[in-house]
Amino acid sequence: MILRVKSLRYHPPEFSGCFPFCARERSRLSRDSMNMACILPLVSFACAAISMGKIISQDELIQVTAREKRSGRRVVFTNGCFDLLHPGHVRCLAEARALGDVLVVAVNSDHSVRGNKGPERPLVPEQDRAEVLAALASVDYVTIFDEPTPRELISRVLPSILVKGADWAPDQVAGREEVEAAGGRVVSIPLAPGYSTTNILQRIRNAAAGASVASRTTHNKS
Q1: Residue 157 vs residues 6, 74, 136: alpha-carbon distances, Å
Q2: Phi then psi for 102, rounded to 5 degrees?
């Protein structure tokens, strides 16, 4: 279910000095504002509930994808840490969804991220990362895996299409052999230029370091 809310921005008409009409118009607008104030929390709650319903366990995912495949729908699978979600991720996921009928995103758990990227990562906890992904219209289901790679999970799901970014060589894509042996295919999606979690983190660190230097300089001058 998709809930659509029209823009709340109101552009007042020209009243040409008709004060009684202006009063009635203001009264109507006041009622409309109160109605929207009541509706918006319900819309937000409904959207949150829908998003959270997309986050499922691995066992639930196996059941759901099996049902989808029996119905003739193409299941697309991709995975990643998604520590700082940026437009590059969003575009890649939208392209992945366009390849099939159902998009499954497997997210590395905090333990898995630390093992792959070091003790300083992730910056965002696994449940928060999953919730942000579930809020995307392109994503149908999100699950979390604790292993270094989702190979075992992929071998259980056996998606029609396995998607990875073009920065991964074909022989490095976990689950490729299992998917291809089952008649599926692996698709490499080009990365959107200019977007990288590593680069974003480096800019943040550089900005923090610059602010620290500026603060010390100001303190010394005083």
Answers
A1: 38, 12, 22
A2: -135, 125
Q: Distance between CA atoms of 153 and 158, rounded to whole angstroms?
A: 8
pLDDT in tens, 130-177: 999 999 999 999 999 999 999 999 999 999 999 999 989 988 999 999
| Residues composing the chain | 222
Q: State the Cα–Cα distance between residues 53 and 140, nearest whole angstrom.
A: 10
| Integer Cα distance of 57 and 106 in angstroms | 10
Residue found under tokens 């905090």? 110
Residue whose pair of structure tokens reads 């809930």 in the numeric block: 3
> Which class for 214: exposed (0-12), middle (13-18), buried (19 or more C-beta within 10 A)?
exposed
Place of tokens 């099939």: 100
Q: How many CB atoms lie within 10 A of CB 103?
A: 25
CA distance 68 to 152: 20
pLDDT tens-place string over residues 16-44: 444 444 455 556 545 655 554 544 444 44
Going along the chain from its start, the domains and CATH numbers come out as 58-191 (3.40.50.620)
Owner of token pair 């070091």: 118
